[in-house]
Amino acid sequence: MAYISGEGVPQDRKTAQKWLRLASEQGDALAQFYLGEMYANGWGVPENFKTAVKWYTLAAENGYLEAQNKLARMYHVGDGVPQDKKTAAKWYKHAAEKGDAAAQRILGVMYAVGAGIAQDYVYGYMWVELAAGQGDESAKALKDNEIFKKMTPSQLETAKKLARECVRKNYKGC
Fold it and tell me: Contact, 46 vs 12, CB < 8 A?
């Protein structure tokens, strides 16, 4: 990656692409992510979102959090790919289960409004509660949003209980 930025070596994005491709083909998720970045941004290669998504997807499937978030955002807003909220929700969930507060907040809103995932106020609030518990200021503000004011006290208590259980499970399988 030093060849991408020129850190400690002369910047040479062609060389970076060569080494990243070799590492990527061996399953290195970080290399796959950076190869995706090269294609998404046209760094030493022609800009090509289809190829970028290919590498981001491989990195995300290999568990690389930043790639999961990148793909989720791309599909959520249709940036370089057709908008697909179901696919966005899938990748946000992967990132949320790794403890990423922003992904938790966004997934919570997606549940609350039924964007790409079945509408569920309890799970929506649970994810927002988790993000707020990690200090996400936007999530803290969302807890008072009109969306969640529709919930019954029983639903709120269930969501908070699920959030506590989720923290105990280190966000896995929530």
Answer: no
Task: Kindly report, residue by residue over 35-65, the tens digit of the pLDDT.
Answer: 999 999 998 899 999 999 999 999 999 999 9
Distance of alpha carbon 56 from alpha carbon 67, whole angstroms: 5
Q: Cα dihedral sign for 120, 124, 126, 127?
A: positive
pLDDT tens for residues 7-20? 665 566 677 788 89
Between the alpha carbon of residue 41 and those of residues 61, 98, 128, the distances in Å are 21, 26, 32
Q: Which residue in 107, 56, 114, 115 sits closest to 84, CA to CA?
A: 115
What pTM did the predictor assign? 0.88
E strand or H helix at 165: helix 153-168
Token duo for residue 159: 């969501």
Q: Which of 79, 78, 139, 77 has its CA nearest to residue 103?
A: 139
- What is each CA distance from 157 to 96, 130, 140, 151, in whole angstroms? 21, 14, 17, 10
Which amino acid is residue 132, in one-letter code?
Answer: A
| Closest C-alpha to 126, from 139, 115, 116, 145 | 139
What's residue 18's pLDDT? 83
